[in-house]
Write a structure and sequence with these properties.
single chain, alpha/beta, nine-stranded parallel sheet, six-stranded antiparallel sheet, 12 helices
């Protein structure tokens, strides 16, 4: 990267941005050193013409929400972590981004006269007080054309992740009951039926599938917080026994939990943050990390081999991705420890979970992708698909897979979310999503309602599960969306040497009132 043209500072959230003085900014040896006391945001501006015909692509803070796309220049559009531009006249693709594990929440804006990197250095909704400490906010990279937009995105993601090495955990395939049970009315018997189903469909494949107990197993019920010390009486009386029974059927047991929400009171709660299911926890209190460590060790002692940790971004910020925007959270609150940026606090949280988890396979859901890279094994990269409404699956699952698949194997194993098999959703469309995910080599989880099983669904599910357990089309060069420049849910895909075409909508097209 060239040195920025200008640097701007915002000491507190209520201050206006101002041009940094020479005394506050030092440029040397490819580094920009900003000296300040309290700090909220820094903006680095590069004045450099951008082609008026360029299409621009960015990423998302956590999961995507069907909103990833190439779009014409929009100066106020914020682009988390990295951006690419594609000049439609010359065919050249270019861009910039920051390496994974930054010390700030980093986003970009792009206009015809240049681009700006916005470093959000706040602690919660207030300024971070570094107390004389030097903070490495970000390593910034420039991306040059690699032949096509798809290959350029691959090389960009590879460049941003050179400092990490994700664990090689092999194919991640299994059952998850969420999209037919939705956390209600299921028990150990239903979980064991799911495990038996996915083992049957795997049909003796040498790679064992997982069977995940999702939300709804602990006494607080669907969506609630901890304590995570036991299952619901009468439904899950012996969690160790449940894990053992899943293993006896030939599957690997997995478990969902919400680490930063508790139904108990304590001084370590995140000030003012509650959603009716419990109180959010502040991970800068040592007691909160002690609780988290104890939970993970308990799950391991019970015999679970996979843990899915969920909702932590919402419990920290009080917002999901689309509502976070460039503001991230409400002004006026801060963590107990005000000397670290929010990005540093989250990164430390993920690192603590990873260290305690040991050999557990970790799935991050509602986790921040650029901070979770290398610290979760699997990342839910898109918002929920649906066992009740096909339009959600089309909008969320296919969009996420198309635009974030280059992160697969470099940041983590990509999980575009479950393939539902339910009476409420059309199998002729779900089966195409199953085929695409299985070919991709990314994580494949299926939610199979026993009431929806037929010889045809079993045949399709069995083929998809076995293909995914074998790594999909990875040996043939993987898959690539061919119409992703013009379509948010691409229908034409290269899979190895063949081109596969999918039809994602019913005869009337996508229903704008659904999803």
């Amino acid at each position: 990267m060239n040195e920025p043209t200008q640097v701007f500072l915002q000491p507190t959230p209520t201050d206006d941005l101002r041009l940094a003085t020479r005394a506050e900014v030092n440029w040397s040896a490819g580094e920009v050193l900003v000296t300040a006391g309290a700090i909220s945001r820094v903006a680095l501006r590069w004045d450099e013409p951008i082609p008026a015909e360029a299409l621009i692509l960015g990423d998302a803070w956590e999961r995507s929400y069907g909103d990833l796309q190439w779009r014409h220049l929009q100066p106020d559009r914020f682009l988390p972590w990295y951006w690419l531009g594609h000049d439609q006249k010359t065919g050249r693709t270019f861009g910039a981004g920051v390496d994974v594990h930054p010390g700030a929440f980093c986003s970009w804006t792009v206009d015809q006269t240049g681009f700006t990197l916005w470093l959000d250095l706040r602690n919660g909704g207030g300024p971070t007080r570094l107390d004389g400490r030097q903070l490495k906010a970000a390593t910034v990279r420039r991306f040059e054309d690699a032949g096509t937009p798809w290959r350029t995105l691959h090389t960009a993601v590879e460049a941003m992740s050179t400092a990490i090495t994700p664990r090689n955990i092999g194919p991640v395939v299994g059952a998850n009951n969420w999209y037919y049970a939705y956390g209600e009315g299921f028990d150990e018997k239903a979980v064991l039926q799911d495990a038996a189903t996915v083992v049957e469909l795997a049909d003796g494949h040498p790679v064992k599938p997982f069977s995940v107990v999702d939300d709804g197993w602990n006494p607080g019920g669907n969506g609630s917080g901890g304590p995570w010390e036991s299952g619901i009486s009468g439904l899950f009386d012996d969690m160790a026994g449940t894990a053992s029974a899943v293993k006896a059927l030939g599957a690997r047991p997995g478990l969902w939990f919400r680490p930063l929400l508790s139904r108990e009171e304590g001084p370590w709660r995140r000030t003012g943050q509650s959603d009716g299911f419990g109180r959010a926890l502040d991970p800068t209190y040592p007691d909160v990390l002690d609780l988290l460590r104890a939970d993970l060790r308990r799950f391991k002692d019970w015999g679970f081999e996979l843990v899915k940790h969920d909702f932590s971004t919402y419990d920290l910020f009080g917002r999901f991705g689309p509502a976070m925007g460039a503001q991230l959270t409400d002004d006026g609150w801060q963590f107990h420890d005000t000397t670290r940026t929010t990005a540093e606090i989250i990164l430390d949280l993920y690192a603590e979970i990873r260290a305690t988890a040991g050999d557990l396979v970790l799935i991050g859901c509602n986790t921040v992708g650029h901070l979770a890279a290398g610290l979760v094994d699997v990342q839910r990269t898109g918002d929920d698909t649906s066992g009740r409404d096909w339009e959600r699956t089309r909008k969320m699952g296919i969009n996420s897979l198309a635009f974030r698949l280059p992160q697969h194997g470099r940041f983590f194993t990509v999980d575009a979310d479950c393939v539902p098999c339910t009476p409420q959703t059309p199998w002729e469309l779900n089966r195409q999503f199953l085929d695409l995910v299985a070919r991709s080599g990314s994580a494949l989880f299926v939610s199979v309602d026993p009431a929806a099983r037929t010889p045809r669904t079993d045949r399709d599910l069995g083929h998809g599960i076995r293909l995914a357990l074998s790594g999909g089309n990875a040996a043939d060069g993987g898959i690539e969306p061919l119409d992703w420049l013009v379509n948010t849910t691409p229908t034409a895909w290269r899979a190895g040497a063949e081109t596969v075409r999918y039809r994602w909508s019913r005869p009337w097209g996508a229903d704008p009132a659904a999803g």
